[in-house]
Amino acid sequence: MEKLYTVSASPHIHSGISTPQIMRDVLLALLPALCISVWFFGFGALYVTAISVASCMFFEYFITRYILHKPLSLRDGSAAVTGLLLAFNVPTNLPEWIIITGALVSIGIAKMSFGGLGNNPFNPALVGRVFLLISFPVQMTTWPIPKGIFTPLIDAATGPTPLALVKENIKNGLPIQDIMANLPSLSDLLLGNRGGSMGEIAALALLAGFAYLLIRKVITWHIPVCILGTLGVFTGILWMSHPDLYPDPIFHLLSGGAILGAVFMATDYTTSPMSLKGKVAYGIGIGLITGLIRVYGAYPEGMSFAILIMNAFVPLINVYMKPARFGKEVKHG
Amino acid sequence: MPKTFLQGGVHPPECKLSKEKAIVTPLLPDRVLIPLSQHIGSPAIACVGVGDQVKTGQVIAKSSGFVSANIHASISGTVSKIGDFSDVTGYCKSALMIEREGDEWIEEIDHTETLIEDLNKSKTEIISKITHAGIVGLGGATFPSHVKLTIPPGKKCKMLLINGAECEPYLTCDHRLMLEKTEEILIGIRLLMIALEVSHAKIGIEENKADAISQFNRLIKKHPGISVVSMKTKYPQGGEKQLIKALTGQEVSPGEIPLDIGVIPFNIGTVYAIYEAVQKNKPLIERTVTLTGKKMGTPSNFRVRIGTILSDILEQAGGIPENTGKVILGGPMMGKAANSLNIPITKGCSGILFVEETESFRKPAEPCIRCAKCVSSCPMGLEPYLLGKLSEMGQFEKAAHEGITLCIECGSCSFICPANRPLLDWIRVGKNAVLKQARVSKK
After folding, report:
1. Are A198 and A45 in contact (CB under 8 A)?
2. Is A253 on the interface with B (CB under 8 A)?
3. A window 155-194, beta carbon within 8 A of B
4. What is the arithmetic mean of pLDDT over B143-155?
């Protein structure tokens, strides 16, 4: 009999891009910031990361295998990304059991209970972080002081983050110039020599990761640029109107989780809008809410809440902000 | 600055393996199988019977309406069978088989290579020759050319656009024609300009064919009104709407035809066929076909008689590569997979692509990660992830509302999807359901 060939519908070629490859790129993009954290906080940073990644992967494995009875999804790499991002969002002196609790909330509640990868409405790592922040406020805001790579694993020295310092001192009525004088310098903010969550300290390393993600076309510039731009404009207007009351926008952009959140958390595929227009609106929303929380809210940092709040608007944004269809509007009869 | 369409698009690897290979005329086939429907519109009606002697170029099936096209004998010999044959899509279609005897042409055809430039022709003469020659769009759409040239009263064509994008990977037939038949194509364009009563024509060519661009730029000087536009290499630039957007900046809206914004596009291959029809009285009995594939010994460009059976011509192209798993008629993005080599090359077939066994299967689909790559790659501004989902759930009305019928089936979404989701498959299901519904409610 004559040979029959495979038949399938077009297209017959594929770009070769795959989910695991994208996740690998995200992990690689986070690597410089991880190295900086180890440099300033010591091997405690690696220890936290290892626990967080391992427990996220374990919970994903356990839930898919024994509860959902679905095919294993560890290979796609998303659990590892969630684990790394969760670690980036906590202080490096956090007790192990708190990290594991955070991983359980991230994977178990925020991700798998909605059906796993691609179905969760909220960013899993941020849900984990905010859960920990509300449940264990003391441990979650006791920041280690950056003392270098040989910091012992258990180190009692702690100090506040720059943003917390500003908030606290403004409340106490100190003039902003005096507060700013005690803060880490611009170069410290850029390089990472300051207190804070593990992965948020080094602005330059995070921006290098941003550049890598752009080059690899993992994300587009829209969300990060809109978030940072809006935050900069918002805090810039306040600063220009009352330079003695508010810190300058550069400080806002470089401190706290602004860059980490804008580049790595808000751009999470599943929980961000699909159209470019939508991404712009979403980015502006996050920037604005972050600014409002930082300036007027009770928390010194607002990035996590801002992203989670805007996550909730994503389905709505997807319905109302469609890409422009080719040609003029279609009439529906 | 090279022009392009603005929204969406992808960059598949070009793989133009045969771009250096001059067009070869293979030995005449001993038989041809000529389907009666090689165009959009109603099938032609056979006007010869089994046992009849036919000469090359003779009409063997007549156009059966306005949107239809004549079909001609592509070799001389005896009609041996008329009946149903399964075509590339697996459907049974009427076709006619001719067994070759010698090489006899009907008299009025000039089948030499001599260049003829006789522009002293009237609009009606040109259109009637094109109609008689059974010319259809050779880019793949196979829309009868005389229909495009018949401008309805009240409409006016302002510019002629020539599609030299050839954005499909692997295919090089238009590229080779542009290099080897530049003068002929320019004369063909002049004839079309007379037929459409326009004074301007633009040839759009993608940057990856720089030699063709400079060749045209060198030769257009003696042809007033024709200009060459270099376009950024991007798929699907050869799509009608994308080409028009790239060349004019205007968008053809849903429900409109290009003429509504005053342009008419023609493919390079079609223009060459029109040159042959008008200047040499030669009907559409052959076309350029790229035979290619990564494992192919010598990827090449053949000038093939219409109706040549694939297996008959393969020997001259070096045989079928070992471990071929898939045979695609057309390019890898929009071509159709054929299940056997026992199928004829028709007017709309621009290439034959042989794909290795190992690359013939899709990877299993994984969950959508909502990366939005399908949305940003869609040249029509659609949301493939959503349309696919709606079709999968059978919500065709919603899919229609989301513009599913705009889809041009370019395949960019399935190509780019990191989760290997069969987006276009589902969109086709939905699109067909919506179009069927529209047909039913019209009746």
Report:
1. yes
2. no
3. none
4. 92
User: For residues A317 and A278, is the Cβ–Cβ distance under 8 A?
Assistant: yes
Chain A residues in contact with B13 (beta carbon < 8 A): 13
Contacting residues for B75 by C-beta, under 8 A, at least 6 apart? B28, B29, B32, B56, B98, B100, B103, B305, B307
**How is residue B351 written in tokens?**
């290439």
| Interface contact A6-B325, CB threshold 8 A | yes
Strand pairing class (B159-164; B263-267): parallel
Amino acid at B4: T
Residue A330 clears pLDDT 60, i.e. is over it:
no
Q: Select from B393, B152, B157, B119 the least CA-distant residue to B278.
A: B119
Residue B94 · residue B84 · CB < 8 Å: yes
CB contacts, 8 Å: B329 with chain A: none
CA-wise closest residue to B412 among B245, B252, B235, B242: B235
Structure tokens at B312: 């008959």
Minimum Cα–Cα distance from A324: chain B residue? B381
Q: Is B197 exposed, middle or buried (0-12, 13-18, 19+ CB in 10 A)?
A: exposed
Question: At B163, phi and psi to the nearest 5?
Answer: -95, 100
The answer to whether residues B86 and B92 touch, using CB atoms and an 8 Å cutoff, is yes
Within 141-160 of B, beta carbons closer than 8 Å to A belong to: none
Contacts of residue B336 in chain A, CB cutoff 8 Å? 10
**What DSSP assignment string belongs to B105-160?**
B-TT---S----------HHHHHHHHHHTT-B-TTTT--BHHHHHSPPTT----EE
Q: Do A10 and B401 touch (CB under 8 A)?
A: no
- Cβ distance A17 to B416 less than 8 Å, yes or no, reads yes
pLDDT digits (tens, 9 = 90+) for A5-27: 888 999 999 999 999 999 999 99
Domain ranges for chain A, please list them.
Answer: 19-140, 161-320
Taking only the tens place, the pLDDT of each residue in B154-203 is 899 999 999 999 999 999 999 999 999 999 999 999 999 999 999 999 99
- Tokens encoding B305: 């008689």
Structure confidence at residue A151 (pLDDT): 67
